[in-house]
Amino acid sequence: MSDILSIGCAAGFGGDRTDAALPIVETMISRGGPGVLIYEMLAERTLALAQLDRRKNPGGGFAPLLELMVRPVLRKCLEHGIPIVSNFGAANPLAAAQLIRRIANDQGITNARIAIVEGDDLSDERGRDLLRGYLRPAAAEREIVSANVYLGAAAIADALRAGAQVVVTGRVADPSLTVGPAMAHFNWSETDWDKLGRATMAGHLLECGAQVTGGYFADPGLKDVPDVAHVGFPIAEIAADGSFVITKADATGGIVDARTVKEQLLYELHDPSAYLTPDVIADISEAEISELGENRIAVVGVRGHPRPATLKATICFAGGWLGEGEISYAGPNAEARARLAAEIIRERMDDALQLRFDLIGVLSVFGDDRGNAFGNCAPTDSRDVRLRVAGVHPDRTPVEQLMREVMALYTCGPAGGGGVRTSITQRLNSVSCFVPRELVPSTFAFLE
Amino acid sequence: MINEETYIPLHQLAHSRTGDKGSTANISLIAYAPEIFPLLVANVTEERVHELFRHRTPTSVRRYMLPKLGAMNFVLEDVLDGGVNDALNLDSHGKTLSFLLLRLEIPVPTELLQFVRALPEEGAGCSPR
């Protein structure tokens, strides 16, 4: 029998469903063979928020949903030899590993081997000094909230080869969560480019969770998804040459077919012949879909080219303040009243800050911040319109003023306005740069 | 003989998903039927897509071909007003933009009308409004 490694992905972002893992783990156990469970929980901005969290609380800074995600399956995974690999360590992998140790202890397992991948965090003094050489001068002078390099699969693979049952990482490239376990299992070298390229695309298809199994896909009447409320999360079956089949957890909703796989294959991709990761440059320009059966899709023809010499780093800075306020108008002449409310705000704020207006129900998301689309949009007969006002400023005071002006539309604005909501949040700005990989070594360590 | 053509929105011919990286959006366009793909190639050009997104002032629109998938990938630079960290848009990721592309209408010759997907029937709307 050929050697197949199953890798299931139970989360596609930090706020994903917390009940996806159990059906995956049960499916991998019932199908037999080696399996790995991954969670991808770290979007571009998530890490900066985690770093802010850690500043407030030295024991925090990892994925807030970690415990809800892991507790239902930890014991089963440890007992059945299914390693867990995830970037849920975020800004504090050590604290995340300690929490997992506590959950394992609660469940009567005291000897779990938990590894921490290190090397991504460049927000300390040494890291900042290193980055200064690669950032534009204006960025180098700003106060850094977080700075992390995207690590590759090597340290994950090393940890698994050393017997880790749980691997906790901070920032790693999303597909590396899949490539690492495949490298370890099949004993690939770091220059098996085609194998790494294929496993990278398997990881790319897994990394957004249900987005390949019928989530983020349904368009009633055109693209219907069976039992979408219980959409199952994906499992990739990877062979020794890196080729793979995408399937999903048993007894769940959703669908894996040529359409769902194509949409996710191209998601967040630019040049299809050069998908850059720390591990490899993957190439799907000649890739084809092969439908093997119900909810079983192979992607064939994926290639790999030698990896880039640099690693990408993302640096987040404290940004200004964003204020968002909304008020509804309904019934006859609703849109005209909403447009008048927007004019009132504009006149009252008098260029104090950058503003954007949207008419929710008429035109809100297709437009642009400068209002190019809005300006060309003649009034409609919309009868249920919600004006949205957004403004940003480096200081909080003018943003607070803007929110008060939205609130005051209750008594000073057009007739019949209702349902005001306002919120103020601090923004994070980010820049990316590339640093030579030899300057950012990664390694792993077992939790004592 | 005149070859009759009907204008059909892409929504009934292809499906699409948007991804974001910084202020750059990528929008895939995937034919439902392989017979439709050459029609997409001929009609959904970089110029047409640039014009459709003109109000969002792209600095470049690049089309990548994936004929073996019956798909194209459009990469639009600087259409997200700075992207998730900077834009004032409710949808700062630009996730909804795939359906702006799918509004584009292209001419479909009579012999290919069999590949046009039917839309579900529209309801009468809500009351009161």
What can you tell me about this protein's structure?
Chain A is globular and about 70 Å long. Chain A has a ten-stranded mixed beta sheet, with helices on both faces. In chain A, strands 5, 14, 15, 16 and 17 form a five-stranded antiparallel beta sheet that branches. Chain A has helices at residues 21-31, 46-56, 66-70, 74-79, 93-106, 125-132, 137-140, 154-161, 176-186, 193-206, 258-265, 334-349, 372-375, 396-407, 409-412, and strands spanning 5-9, 35-39, 84-86, 114-118, 144-149, 166-168, 234-238, 244-248, 275-276, 281-283, 288-293, 296-300, 303-305, 310-330, 354-360, 384-393, 418-436, 443-446. The longest helix of chain A is centred in the C-terminal third of the chain and has 16 residues, at 334-349. Chain A has 448 residues and is an alpha+beta fold. In chain A, a hairpin with a 5-residue loop joins strand 7 (234-238) and strand 8 (244-248). Chain A has 15 helices and 18 strands. Chain B has one domain (5-81, 95-114). Helices cover 14% and strands 29% of the residues of chain B. Chain B is built from three helices and seven strands; from the N terminus they run ββββααββαβ. Chain B has helices at 37-43, 46-52, 98-101; strands at 5-9, 14-15, 18-21, 24-31, 60-66, 71-77, 105-109. In chain B, strands 2, 3, 4, 5 and 6 form a five-stranded antiparallel beta sheet that branches. Chain B is globular. The model of chain B has no long low-confidence stretch (mean pLDDT 93). Classes of the chains: A alpha+beta (448), B alpha+beta (129).
Task: Itemize the secondary structure elements and their pairings.
The complex is a heterodimer of chains A (448) and B (129).
Chain A: E1 5-9, H1 21-31, E2 35-39, H2 46-56, H3 66-70, H4 74-79, E3 84-86, H5 93-106, E4 114-118, H6 125-132, H7 137-140, E5 144-149, H8 154-161, E6 166-168, H9 176-186, H10 193-206, E7 234-238, E8 244-248, H11 258-265, E9 275-276, E10 281-283, E11 288-293, E12 296-300, E13 303-305, E14 310-330, H12 334-349, E15 354-360, H13 372-375, E16 384-393, H14 396-407, H15 409-412, E17 418-436, E18 443-446
Helix pairs in contact in A: 8-9, 9-10
Chain B: E1 5-9, E2 14-15, E3 18-21, E4 24-31, H1 37-43, H2 46-52, E5 60-66, E6 71-77, H3 98-101, E7 105-109
Antiparallel strand pairs in B: 1-7, 2-4, 3-4, 4-6, 5-6
